[in-house]
Each structure stands twice: as structure tokens, then as C-alpha cells.
Amino acid sequence: MDPNLWLGVLVAAAFALSWAGTGAVLVALRRIGMIDNPNHRSSHVRPTPRGGGIAPVLVAVAAWWCVNNALPGNWGAVSLAPDVVIGAALALAMLSMLDDLRGLPWLVRLLAQALAVTAALISLPPDPVFQGLLNGRWDMAVAGIVWLWFINAFNFMDGIDGIAGTETMTVGIGVALVAAIAALPPLFGAWGLCLAAAAAGFLLWNWQPAKVFLGDAGSIPLGYLVGWLLLMLAAHGQWVAALLLPLYFLADASLTLARRLAAGARPWVAHRTHLYQRAAAAWGSHAAVVLRVAVLNMALLSLAVLAVQFRTWVPLAAGLALTVGLLWYFDRTAADHEGASQAKQ
After folding, report:
1. CA–CA separation, 272 vs 288, rounded Å?
2. 0.85 exceeded by the pTM?
3. pLDDT average, residue stretch 79-108
């Protein structure tokens, strides 16, 4: 079979299995009573099963294993790191499912994430992630810190229906396009498409009104896998694309964290003060927010492609401007709504 046709079959199977697997997991979650009940920190208004993200994660890592070990032809093997990443993602999924079930101390979760990041980084080839700007161990250390932050930022941003699935799809497709245009190893594109397909299958269950949530069992390992793909782009010279593709998630999560730290809040305590959450509350619609983020993501993806073609930082500046514009719009919308609500009281 032609390798591209084989990949197409694998991507289609990932979508179908993720959709079917999420439905099966949803039945099991209802039976065991693994339900996320609304509270003052929630963005949802009705009890909803959580932990459904275990299905797309299992499908994604299975598809990645097939890409690494079963695709015919020369797909450009990178190193043993992809298999390490698969194992670490599975371990994070299992630990995070336990966290969804029983709750684990934040320090235990952070240490597990740090171990998963370290295991993958020490398996990398000697090529520096930051392309020589940092030397030796500093390159690996900073890459690890950035990856660890991204995992948690991705988890923080999984706060309304559909947003994390949409982001995963965008980054996966974006990585595939960037890899193709930049003539990177075809494995990169295969990984991205398989991850996007698994996210799309889950998204059918998670679009507003969501029937099931990712839970930490989904958001933590998905953030880990997405972060790996972005680091691989950066390590192969595509810095600008690696920054542009997840820019909205990084910007909203970082800005909100800075605001909370300035206010003396504990960063690990759940809340709903991200700009996308406040905008969703103002409009009374998760889908309205996610569609706007999706439009921005498509613009960022297009800019990432331009950055590869023309090798310039201008697309990054344009992406930053667009992202700041959407953040400002969300902030203004939320502030007007909150001000009107306070005036009525």
C-alpha cells in the first residue's frame, strides 16, 4: 500500500476510534459516577462526566506508535524519543485519571510531569532546541521549563466546551503543514495529523453543550504531546511557527497567571478568570468564544506557513497583534458585562 494512503487510513481510523472510544468511556463514567458538578469556579451549569479525554489520548498514542513502527517506506526516523514520549504520555494519562477519580496533591502531579519531560529530553539527539542561543545543559533546562509550563497552560485553558479540542486540532494540522513546507521528516506531519484526528473525534462529544469533559486524564497528556510537537518544530529551526501555532493559549494563560500572582492568588487553585472564561460568561455561550478563538487560530496557522516560506519575523509580529486584539476584545466584553451586573445589584 502507498505510504500516504496508509497514513490516510490511519488518520481516519484515529478519528473514528476516538469518537467511538469517547462514547464508550462516557457510558463507563456515568456508571461509576465520575461527574463534574458545577460550583462557583465552574464555567458549566449542569453535571457532566469528566475524564473522557482518556479515549483520544489512548487513540493518539496508539496511532503514534503505528507511525513510528508500522508505516511502510522511509518516514525519517528521528530518535528513540518518540517511543519515550508515548510511554510518558500513557503514564501521565493513568496518573491524571487517578487525579480525576480521587484527587492528588499538586506537587505530585508537577513532579510526574517533570519526570515525563526529562525522560523525553534526555532521549533527544544532541541538536539544541534553541538553535545555539543557549549552550549545553542550559538549552535542555530551559526547554524543559517551557514544556512544563505549556503542559499546565494547556490544562488551565481547558475550561469551556470545545476549546482544548479545537486547539489540538489546529496545532496538529499546523505542524503537518509546516513540516511539509519546511521539508522536515514526514513523521512530524504524521504525528500532527493523527493527533488532530483524535482530537476531532473527541470534539464531537465536547462541543457545547458538552456531553463529557477531557478531565486531567485528557488535558495533561494532550498538552504533553502538543508541547513535544512544538519543541520539535523549534529544534528543527521553525521557531516562529512553534510560537505562532499555540499563541492564543500561551498568551491567555500567561496573562491570567501574571494577574493572579499580582493579586496574591495561589496559581494552583481552580478558578474561572481566564479571559476566554470571562467572555463565555458575558455572552452565555462557550461556542461563541471558541469560534472566535478558532478564527484567530486559523490566522495564526496561516502566518506560521508564511513564516516558513519567507523566513521572517514579520508573521510573529502580526500574530502577536491579532492575539492581543482578541484578548483586549474578550477583556472589554467581560468588563462591560461584569460592570453591568454589579450596577444591577
Report:
1. 17
2. yes
3. 90
